Amino acid sequence: MTKRVYFVVHGTVSASGTEALVLAERCSEYFTRKKAQEYGVTGWCRNTRDNTVEGEAQATEDILTKFLKDVDYGPRHARVTKVVKEDREIVEGEDSFDVTR
């Protein structure tokens, strides 16, 4: 059964100053996209102004569970402190996972 979830990832990056901002921006959203592509998850993600990553992911329940477990763990330069999830309506015909701005 296909399922769609909205998620918000909260956490910190193990760097300081400008380096932290660049890592947070690039590392988190691109990590999420890479994992989505590995699992065949569709949807989107983006960085927010409050330094979280939000997005929507769609896949079978089994695949979505694996994907969200990886998102809970996060990229190696980051420490995920919380992931908020909320079920959403399925989007028919979606065929990619995109990083949006």
Give an account of the 3D structure:
Residues 4-101 form the Acylphosphatase-like domain. Pfam families: Acylphosphatase (PF00708). This is Acylphosphatase-like domain-containing protein. Belongs to the acylphosphatase family. The chain is of the alpha+beta class and 101 residues long. It has a single domain (2-90), classed as 2-Layer Sandwich (Alpha-Beta Plaits), CATH 3.30.70.100. Helix content is 36%, strand content 40%. The protein has helices at 17-39, 61-73, and strands spanning 2-13, 42-47, 53-60, 78-88, 97-99. A five-stranded mixed β-sheet has the order 4-1-3-2-5, with helices on one face. A hairpin with a 5-residue loop joins strand 2 (42-47) and strand 3.
| Largest sheet, spatial ordering of strands | 4-1-3-2-5
DSSP strand count: 5
Briefly note the structural class of the backbone.
alpha+beta
* CATH architecture assignment name: 2-Layer Sandwich
Assigned CATH class: Alpha Beta
Offer a concise description of the structure:
Residues 4-101 form the Acylphosphatase-like domain. Belongs to the acylphosphatase family. Helices cover 36% and strands 40% of the residues.
What structural keywords apply?
globular; 2 helices; Alpha-Beta Plaits; 36% helix; single chain; 101 residues
Topology:
Elements: E1 2-13, H1 17-39, E2 42-47, E3 53-60, H2 61-73, E4 78-88, E5 97-99
Parallel strand pairs: 2-5
Antiparallel strand pairs: 1-3, 1-4, 2-3
Helix pairs in contact: 1-2
